[in-house]
Amino acid sequence: MFNSLTGTITGKFPNTVFVDTHGIEWSLSVPGSTLDALPAVGQTARVFTYMVHSEDNMSLYGFASAEERQLFLDLLKVEGIGPKGAVKILTNISGSQLAAALDKGDVAVLEKVPGVGKKTAAKMLLALKGKLTLSENDTVVIRRTVSGPYEAVITSLASMGYDRRDCEQTVADITEQLAKDDGWNKKKPTEKEDAVFRRALVELAQ
């Protein structure tokens, strides 16, 4: 649905940014790292987005980079961490520090992050250890081992507001079913992605 917004920064507040796109002003919840990375009020910026839609609320979250948004989505995979909790975590620890702590299994560092207790820290290690690393320019890179060739499909579905864990399970179930079709392996990768995406949309919307 929304991948990013490009417009004029009209307001910067703690964990909130206003972006004007041709007369429509968007309010985005952002982590402190994004707030620091975005330019000053009055300047143009591109903000990567993620929408969270529930029965009684619709919120738009913003990030300075696609990598930071992906880190946010990975935090949502941890049991007990919701969107607001993920924003709070990324406000109080940088992506590089988080990746390093997870890679080393440093529970003490994680426990010091506001909103992360001993139990949540343990769950973070269980869900994310070994899946985050750092590139040469100190940005976080997400290492995938489960989603395989359909990671783009899962990310697209999640960006539309569906729970990422539901997307992963749905895509896994669909690909398992489709693999039983004799003609499935003859399809091109793009055809497979399109088929899985369309079918997943139908199932997730039910």
Number of E strands: 7
End-to-end distance:
18 Å
Number of helices: 9
CATH architecture of the largest domain: Orthogonal Bundle
Q: What summary fits the major beta sheet?
A: 5 strands, antiparallel
Number of domains: 3
Structural category is alpha+beta
Mean pLDDT: 83
Q: Return residue spans where pLDDT drops below 50 for at least 5 consecutive residues.
A: 134-138, 140-147
Put the structure in a nutshell.
The chain has 206 residues and is an alpha+beta fold.
Textual characterization of the structure:
- By secondary structure, this protein is of the alpha+beta class.
- It has 3 domains: 4-63, Nucleic acid-binding proteins (OB fold (Dihydrolipoamide Acetyltransferase, E2P), Beta Barrel); 66-138, 5' to 3' exonuclease, C-terminal subdomain (DNA polymerase, domain 1), CATH 1.10.150; 148-205, no CATH class.
- It has helices at 32-37, 66-76, 83-92, 95-104, 107-111, 118-128, 151-159, 164-178, 189-205, and strands spanning 4-13, 16-21, 24-29, 44-53, 58-63, 132-134, 140-142.
- The strands form 2 sheets. The chain has a 5-stranded antiparallel sheet with strand order 3-2-1-4-5.
- A hairpin with a 5-residue loop joins β6 (132-134) and β7.
- It is globular.
- The two termini are 18 Å apart.
